[in-house]
């Protein structure tokens, strides 16, 4: 397989940040009196915070929702954020293979860069596209197309790796190969319904896919 670029989602794919995200949402929902439903909020993870705020808090309270979320997210970030095991080693190996690497996330620029710098991902990333870098977000292809434009590559030479069906939809729409990881927010069965080009149970599976 002639791959030049591997792009990754951030939360739930590289970073084990779901505990932080769920902790933060619980605090915000509780303070604002919004009914809590694990399954409902899990289905929205991977979308921009603006969309989530409007859906759960309504247009009039969306700004308050976002401010509260950002406050608690940054307050507890370092306590709850970790990388999934083997992530830095995997990126180091891909870089040694001569591949360009990037992150495409629906997280805002400030939060995304905090996670990347805190975890050491920054030393391996050639480009990062956040919610602030495009007008239209996943599941639309725009963020992935933006990353490819920056790295001057083509869809047939690009792989996108993510943990949600939003990632698979965005990758397929962008014309790139898509891989779903089974340790994130979506189950294997949910990912399979969106027909990724492969599923990863560990980072070792990524190397096997790239060697085909």
UniProtKB/TrEMBL annotation:
GO BP of this protein: DNA repair
GO terms of molecular function: phosphoglycolate phosphatase activity
Record field: transmembrane: none
PANTHER family xref list: PHOSPHOGLYCOLATE PHOSPHATASE, PYROPHOSPHATASE PPAX
InterPro entries attached to this UniProt entry: HAD-like_hydrolase_sf, HAD-like_sf, HAD-SF_hydro_IA, HAD_2, HAD_sf, PGP-like_dom2
Pfam family, one: HAD_2
Gene Ontology CC terms, in alphabetical order: cytosol
Name listed for the protein in its UniProt record: Pyrophosphatase PpaX
Domain of life: Bacteria
């Amino acid at each position: 397989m002639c791959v030049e670029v591997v792009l990754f989602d951030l939360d739930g794919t590289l970073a084990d940040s779901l505990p932080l995200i769920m902790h933060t949402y619980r605090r915000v929902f509780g303070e604002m009196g919004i009914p809590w439903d694990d399954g409902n909020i899990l289905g929205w993870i991977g979308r921009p915070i603006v969309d989530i705020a409007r859906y759960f808090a309504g247009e009039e309270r969306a700004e308050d929702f976002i401010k509260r979320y950002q406050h608690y997210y940054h307050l507890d970030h370092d306590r709850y954020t970790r990388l999934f095991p083997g992530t830095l080693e995997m990126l180091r190996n891909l870089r040694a293979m001569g591949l360009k690497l990037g992150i495409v996330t629906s997280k805002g620029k400030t939060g995304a860069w905090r996670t990347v710098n805190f975890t050491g991902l920054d030393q391996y990333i050639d480009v990062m596209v956040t919610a602030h870098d495009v007008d239209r977000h996943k599941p639309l292809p725009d963020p992935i197309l933006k990353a490819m434009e920056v790295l001057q590559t083509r869809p047939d030479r690009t792989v996108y790796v993510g943990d949600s069906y939003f990632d698979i939809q965005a990758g397929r729409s962008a014309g790139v190969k898509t891989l779903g990881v089974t340790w994130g927010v979506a189950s294997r069965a949910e990912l399979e319904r969106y027909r990724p080009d492969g599923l990863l149970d560990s980072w070792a599976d990524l190397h096997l896919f790239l060697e085909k």
